[in-house]
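Dig into my protein:

:::
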Amino acid sequence: AKNYLRILSRRDAAALRSFFSENVTLRDWDQSADGIDAVIAANQGIFDAFSSIIVDILHCHESEETVVVEMRIQLTNEGESLSLLVTDIIGFDQDGMVNFVRAYKG
């Protein structure tokens, strides 16, 4: 999960693809996406909107198939910054690939 979050910080959609199962789903407070191409496109939209993404992990709980991460995300674009407190629930399939991401703001 920490490697996945590092890739998010790098804004690297191509590298994200290597973490996702074909049937990955994404749901957050703004959007939802089903399937690897749609989830990659949703992430690319975020990457395009912000020139910098900094993820600071505050708490992390791991079980066999799920990771819960509380983090502060600093988003910057054209000198303006936005700081969000976010909790992700990240699920993994039997092959260790991310098969769902649920993101909650606040």
Observations:
- The longest strand covers residues 80-92.
- The two ends are 20 Å apart (CA to CA).
